[in-house]
Amino acid sequence: MRAFFPLLLLGCLATSVASASPRSVRDRFSRTVAVGATVGVGSPRGFAGGFVELRPWRAFGVSVGGGAGGTFGPSLDVSAVLAPLGGTSWAIGAEGSFSHQFSYGTGFTAPDGRTMPAGSNWVSAGLSVEVHPSRGFLLRVGAGRAWLINTGDFGVLSRNELAYAESEYSIIPGVTPLDAARAALDGQMLSMWYVHIDLAPTWRW
């Protein structure tokens, strides 16, 4: 009986220590697949689009997507997010993408047959804030700058032709292929600011 009480006391202490030990908490980003929708202005996926994202680690994810585009036409893109700062359900980091947009049409045609390019290539870089309000849902807001890397291809019009095209063609507001033509004539690379909001259900793999 004398040996029983010390053993009982040790058992109680071990149970208390085990109960007090913190449980490992798994973050909501790692090893997830997201299939979502996005809306934005100037973003690689344009006004509205969709994406599939693979997130092997909390701090890194890669996605493919596409969208309605903007004045430069529908788009396809490959994007990545690098988010070293964060916790179980939130992350702050950088994002980047390469996208190709397919022109709605060649637009203005010069008398000798010169036309605008049939597509445009963009690189984008910015910052993003991500939140997992629940285990199966992702909300992300991002903003940054996009650059038209083939701006020079739009330098097919003279200044007089560009002025005529601007007076004759009415297109939706925003940065347009005519702005790219003007930048090409000035020897500059066209760029613009962008912002987007992503919403997506997620699943672990």
Keywords:
about 200 residues; alpha+beta; Porin; 8-stranded antiparallel barrel; elongated
Write the SSE topology.
Blueprint (H helix, E strand, L loop, with lengths): L3 H17 L11 E10 L6 E10 L2 E11 L2 E14 L3 E13 L16 E16 L2 E12 L10 H10 L8 H9 L5 E14 L1
Antiparallel strand pairs: 1-2, 1-8, 2-3, 3-4, 4-5, 5-6, 6-7, 7-8
Q: Can you walk me through this structure?
A:
The protein has 205 residues and is an alpha+beta fold. The protein has a domain at 27-107 and 119-150 and 191-204: Porin, CATH 2.40.160.20. Helix content is 18%, strand content 49%. An eight-stranded antiparallel β-barrel has the order 1-2-3-4-5-6-7-8. The longest helix is centred in the first third of the chain and has 17 residues, at 4-20. Residues 3-24 have low confidence and may be disordered.
